[in-house]
Amino acid sequence: AQKITQTQPGMFVQEKEAVTLDCTYDTSDPSYGLFWYKQPSSGEMIFLIYQGSYDQQNATEGRYSLNFQKARKSANLVISASQLGDSAMYFCAFLSGGYQKVTFGTGTKLQVIP
Amino acid sequence: NAGVTQTPKFRILKIGQSMTLQCTQDMNHNYMYWYRQDPGMGLKLIYYSVGAGITDKGEVPNGYNVSRSTTEDFPLRLELAAPSQTSVYFCASSPQGGAYEQYFGPGTRLTVT
Q1: Between A43, A50, A91, which is nearest B99 by CB?
Q2: How far is B112 from chain A (nearest CA, A)?
Q3: What pLDDT, on the 0 to 100 scale, is given for residue B84?
Q4: Do A47 and B102 touch (CB under 8 A)?
Q5: How far apart are CA B98 and CA B90, in angstroms?
Q6: Cα torsion at B88, B41, A31, B4 (round to 10°)?
Q7: CA dihedral for A40, A87, B41, B28, sign (positive or negative)
Q8: Mean pLDDT per 10-residue section of chain A, whose length is 114 residues
Q9: Beta strand pairing status for A19-21 and A74-79?
Q10: Which residues make Cβ contacts (< 8 Å) with residue A100, sequence separation at least 6?
Q11: B8-60: per-residue pLDDT in tens?
């Protein structure tokens, strides 16, 4: 069974600084994907970024980028120029090789300090 | 488009009662999912569906049932509610599986006492 791990329960970052949220996974599938979602205190789930195992380049979406290291089985989220509105829970999620099921990590709570 | 809607937003059940959580999407998505999120935890997949008439179990299906008679609707049935089912329930949909983002509903907060 696939396993996904987020080892940082909580993180602090100064406004305008960059921050890296860690995510590691364990799989023997050659084909898979990694998602990152944001959950503000209001509770909704917001899609941020996706990386496929065969993608040649690391995914980027605005201030979000994914540092994908396939050999290390890590898919860390990098947020550049943090804003107060970035304070939220961040979930890494693993997409299985069958491309049908997504397994979520336990999340990292990010707090941006003015 | 309303996206993914869930009703009710909040519900308190007594132990042993049953209820149905409603989920509707208006994006003509084939894939639909039900997750539960316990306090301080990530989401766990309960059931999913890849199209009308097709459902399959996720990670934590015990105590729940689903049906998918139309593309739009994917209700989740709780039979004989237990305190362990106290959670926030999210419904989600995506156009296909794979590298498509899932669109989430606002969630239903359920308390079983």
Answers
A1: A50
A2: 20
A3: 95
A4: yes
A5: 19
A6: 20
A7: positive
A8: 87 97 93 94 93 91 96 96 97 81 92 97
A9: antiparallel
A10: B31, B48, B50, B56, B97
A11: 999 999 999 999 999 999 999 999 999 999 988 889 999 999 999 999 999 89
